[in-house]
Every structure is written in C-alpha cells, then in structure tokens.
Here is the input.
Amino acid sequence: MKSLKTLGQFIIEKQADFPYAKGELSRLLRDIGIAAKIVNREINKAGLIDDILGRTGDTNVFGESQKKLDVYADEQFIAALKSGGECCFVASEEQEEGIELVDSGISKNAKYIVCIDPLDGSSNIEVNVSVGTIFSIYRRKSAVGEQLTQEDVLQCGLDQVAAGYIIYGSSTMLVYTTGKGVNGFTLDPSIGEFCLSHPNMKIPETGQIYSINEGNYLKFPQGIKNYIKYCQEVDPESKRPYTSRYIGSMVADIHRNLLLGGVFIYPQTALQPNGKLRLMYECNPLAFIIEQAGGKASTGTERILEIIPEELHQRVPAIIGNTEMVDKVLEFIANSKTISYV
Ligand code: P6P
Here is the structure.
C-alpha cells in the first residue's frame, strides 16, 4: 500500500528546505488547511441546509451580492489566521479594508501577511459547480513590533513566500507552492486529512483547451478576438479546433488547465478596462503556482508577478496557462492592428 503523507507531514518535511525556518510558515499553512476543512464541510452540506445557501442581502466591496458561504468562509479563514498567531495582517476580497491581527495578542510577533479570496466563484455554489479559495502569503517588510505600512501589504507578486488554492469539487484539493515546485493534496474525508496526491505538479508543455467567457466576445480587444478565431480554425496538425472549457470559477478553470494543459483568459474590455480579476488574491497567487509548474502568467503586456500594486483590490487582465499557449495569445495581441472595442 502506497505510504500516506499528510499535508502536515509534508510541510514539516519541506521546512528543512528553508534553513532559517523556525516553523512559522509551516504553522501558517497548517492554519489555512484547518480552515479549508471547515469550509469544505459547510460547502458539502450547503445543498441540504437552505439557510447557508443564498444571499446575505449584503454586497461586498464591489457591489456583488454576498452569499452566506462567502461570509462564512471569510470568517473561518480570518478566525484560523487570528488563532494561529502567525499572521499579522489579512486582506480579503470580502473586506473593504485589510484587518490587522497584531492587536489580537498572540499575533503581535507575527511576520506574515495573507491576501485571500475566501470563496471564489461562489455564484456557482447553488448549481453545485466547483468553487475555490485562493491565498497568497508575504513576509512583512517592516520590523516586528513596528507599525504595519502600505509597503507591507501592497507587495509585488515576486515577493510571495507561498501561494495556494483549495478547490471544493468532486474531491477537495489543496494545491500550494513555497517557490520550490507545486504539490497537490486531496482531502481524505475518512481521516479528515489532506494527503499528498499530486507531487511536483507540472503543467503540460502543450494544450488544446482555451478558457474564456465568449459571451463578452464583442467587447474583447481585437487581438483576443483574433486568438479565439485561431482556436476555432480547423488545422489537424496543430490539433485545432481547440476545446473551449469555461466554468466561471477561476480556481476550477486554472486547476483543470494545470492538469491537462490550456490557457485561461480574462481580458480587459471597454466596460472593464483592467479586466475583472483581482491582482492580490486571485491573479498573483495563481500566477505564482502556474509559473512554478512551468507555465506563464501575463496581463497581455506584462508579467503578472512583476506588477507593483497600487491598491488592495486592483484588477488586472489575466492570460494564464502553459507557456506555448500564453505566448500565442501574446503574439495575437502584439500583432493586432488596433485594440478596438466593438
Ligand atoms: P464572468 C468568479 O466570480 C470570478 O471571480 C472567477 O472565479 C471567474 O473566473 C470569473 O469571475 C467569471 O467571470 O464575468 O465570466 O462571469
């Protein structure tokens, strides 16, 4: 029988990769894993308990209606980070301002910052489609004990010390990187542990899947329109037409493309000149993971991880996937005569 390795065992084992590690990051990742199991339990029974489904009647910072599970997930991750004591500041999609945990006693010496989308794609919950949590971890730049500053929070994606996602799907998986490769863990409900199931994940070098909301076609830049038509052309040698797969849940689309190869595109449009997806807790963490898995992540004009953030909830266009397909999208963008919005 193949030996079982739990997330906790793996984290401790990999801690040795960081000679100066004292276990804080390991404990922080453990805390996130615990919250993920609690959120998973609620998602799995959501269909059975009416009151956890549906809307709270409130809206989040973007005016999007907040679902009860959004709020529940946000509360669980913040509570886990607070009680774990390794995080001094958390920025969440569900919170207009970030939350300083330093005042909560045990976190006063914490040196990590967490940016999180507690439940991405939550509009899919009531139709039983996979949803996900996305997180990004930075080391604070100011000294422990000093006042946290904007420089601590608005850090470039290249400065992430870890990033990951949990996908609540046909099975629940936690996938993360600390900059030394990507590893996937599947939750075994019989023992309540995430177990290593996808060691050293690498995105296939080629792919035939493109993920984009073609309902917005008329509003796309010309280069993106041209790329979509390229995907639909019949050319057996390059295995086109490609397959269009778009779930409307970024974690699920990125996870499928990580396993099978493919490119996920959420471009800018006239109505959304910076696209829809948020840099700090959607694009940066997923870009870190995909690059660590051998892929590429661009806005169409620059590497996502090199963007210097200007505000907490800023949006960026996203083209994320295996390098060959991302480069082809960039080629069409570069060659489009004008970026015209129809
Ligand atoms: P659209 C979910 O709301 C989300 O943030 C991502 O998970 C998903 O990829 C995208 O928005 C879907 O947006 O405009 O295609 O419905």
Notes: Helices lie at 7-15, 24-45, 68-84, 150-153, 222-232, 250-260, 279-292, 323-335. The pocket of 6-O-phosphono-alpha-D-fructofuranose is lined by residues 120-121, 123, 213, 248-250, 276-277 (CB under 6 Å).
